[in-house]
C-alpha cells in the first residue's frame, strides 16, 4: 500500500495567517509517498530515499528524537517505513506537512495528529495551513479555527523557481523573525496590509499589482534573500506576476505566466535558477 500527499504553495497570506488572517493556498503535483512494511525486530525503521536511514529501538523508551516523538503521537508498532519525496526540503513547499499527512494517513491517524507531528518540525507556533491544504487538495482559503474552504480560481501555468537558498532556522526561525518585527517594528501594519491584499486576491484573482505588493510586504518583514528578490525583479521586468512563497529566508518563488509560451520564455530569463512547471493537485492525501 502506498500513501501519497502533495506539496503546497501559499498564493497569498503566509505569516499573516499565523496571526489569524485568511490565506490563499494550493496543493501542487509534487508528492511525498510512503510505503509501510511489517518489521521482524522491535523497532521502527525509516528509509528516506536511498541515502538516509533512521532506526528507533522500541525496547528502550527514553529517546526524544523526532522519530520517537512521531511514533508516540501515532502509537506506532514495529514497522519499516519507506519515504520517497519529490518535495524539496526546507524550501517553503511544505515537505514536512506532506510527510506528516502521508504518514498519519498510513497509520489511520487524525488530522490533529498530523498537526502535532508538523509542530515537531515547525515548533508549536504554526497555523496548521500546510497540513490542512496537503490533506485536502485543490485551491483553498485557510484561516485558523475555521474549516478549510475550496475556491475556484484559474491557475494554468504555475512556475516554481528555486532560489537555491535554504532557511537555516526552519519555519520556526522565520516565524520568530516576523514576531520580532511585530513586537519591535512595523510588522503589525505590514501583516494587516498582507491580509487586505489576500482578501482582494481571493475576490479578484491573481491581479499582478496585488501579487507584487504582497511580495514587497514580505520583503519588508525581512524574510527575502537577495536571490529571492533577484528572481522577483526578473519576473517583474517581464511583467509576469510573481512572489516568494512559504516561510521565506530561502526556498521557492512562484510565478504565474499567462500561457505556455510565456512560461518557456520566463524559464529562459531565469536560467541561473532551477525552475519547475507545476499544476494544482485536486485530490489531496490519498492511497494509491
Ligand atoms: N523527504 C524528507 N527527507 C528528510 N527530511 C524530511 C523530508 N520531508 C520532510 N522532512 C523533515 O521536514 C523538515 C523540513 O520542514 P520545514 O522546515 O517545515 O520546511 P518546509 O518548508 O519544506 O515544510 C526537515 O528538516 C525534515 O526534518
Ligand atoms: C510562515 C507560514 O505561514 C507558512 C510556512 O510554510 P513552510 O513551512 O515554509 O512550507 C507558517 C504557518 O502558516 O504555519
UniProtKB/TrEMBL annotation:
Pfam families: GHMP_kinases_C, GHMP_kinases_N. InterPro entries: GHMP_kinase_C_dom (IPR013750), GHMP_kinase_N_dom (IPR006204), GHMP_knse_ATP-bd_CS (IPR006203), Mev_gal_kin (IPR006205). Transmembrane segments: none annotated. GO terms for biological process: isopentenyl diphosphate biosynthetic process, mevalonate pathway. It is an enzyme of class 2 (transferase). GO terms for molecular function: ATP binding; mevalonate kinase activity. Residues 205-271 form the GHMP kinase C-terminal domain. Its EC number is 2.7.1.36. One of its GO terms (cellular component) is cytosol. Keywords: ATP-binding, Kinase, Nucleotide-binding, Transferase. It is found in: Cytoplasm. Its main location: cytoplasm. Residues 81-138 form the GHMP kinase N-terminal domain. PANTHER family: MEVALONATE KINASE (PTHR43290). Belongs to the GHMP kinase family. Mevalonate kinase subfamily. This is mevalonate kinase. It comes from Paramecium octaurelia.
Amino acid at each position: 500500500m502506498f500513501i501519497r500527499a502533495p506539496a503546497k504553495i501559499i498564493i497569498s497570506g503566509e505569516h499573516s495567517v499565523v496571526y489569524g488572517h485568511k490565506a490563499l493556498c494550493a496543493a501542487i503535483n509534487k508528492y511525498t509517498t510512503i510505503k509501510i512494511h511489517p518489521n521482524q525486530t522491535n523497532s521502527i525503521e525509516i528509509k528516506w530515499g536511498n541515502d538516509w536511514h533512521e532506526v528507533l529501538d522500541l525496547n528502550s523508551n527514553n529517546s526524544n528524537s523526532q522519530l520517537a516523538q512521531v511514533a508516540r503521537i501515532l502509537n506506532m508498532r514495529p514497522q519499516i517505513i519507506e519515504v520517497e519525496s519529490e518535495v524539496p526540503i526546507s524550501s517553503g513547499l511544505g515537505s514536512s506537512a506532506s510527510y506528516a499527512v502521508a504518514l498519519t494517513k498510513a497509520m489511520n491517524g487524525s488530522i490533529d495528529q498530523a498537526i502535532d507531528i508538523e509542530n515537531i518540525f515547525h515548533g508549536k507556533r504554526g497555523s496548521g495551513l500546510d497540513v490542512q491544504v496537503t490533506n485536502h487538495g485543490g485551491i483553498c482559503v485557510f484561516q485558523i479555527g475555521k474549516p478549510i474552504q475550496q475556491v475556484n480560481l484559474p491557475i494554468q501555468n504555475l512556475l516554481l523557481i528555486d532560489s537555491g537558498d535554504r532557511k537555516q532556522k526552519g519555519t520556526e526561525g522565520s516565524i520568530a523573525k516576523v514576531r520580532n518585527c511585530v513586537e519591535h517594528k512595523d510588522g503589525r501594519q505590514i501583516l494587516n496590509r498582507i491580509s487586505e491584499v489576500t482578501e482582494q486576491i481571493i475576490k479578484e484573482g491573481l491581479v499582478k499589482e496585488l501579487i507584487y505588493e504582497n511580495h514587497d510586504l514580505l520583503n519588508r518583514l525581512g524574510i527575502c534573500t537577495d536571490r529571492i528578490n533577484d528572481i522577483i525583479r526578473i519576473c517583474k521586468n517581464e511583467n509576469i506576476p510573481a512572489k516568494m512563497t512559504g516561510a521565506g529566508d530561502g526556498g521557492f518563488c512562484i510565478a504565474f505566466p499567462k500561457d505556455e509560451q510565456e512560461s518557456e520564455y520566463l524559464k529562459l530569463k531565469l536560467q541561473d535558477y532551477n525552475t519547475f512547471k507545476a499544476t494544482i493537485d485536486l485530490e489531496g492525501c490519498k492511497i494509491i
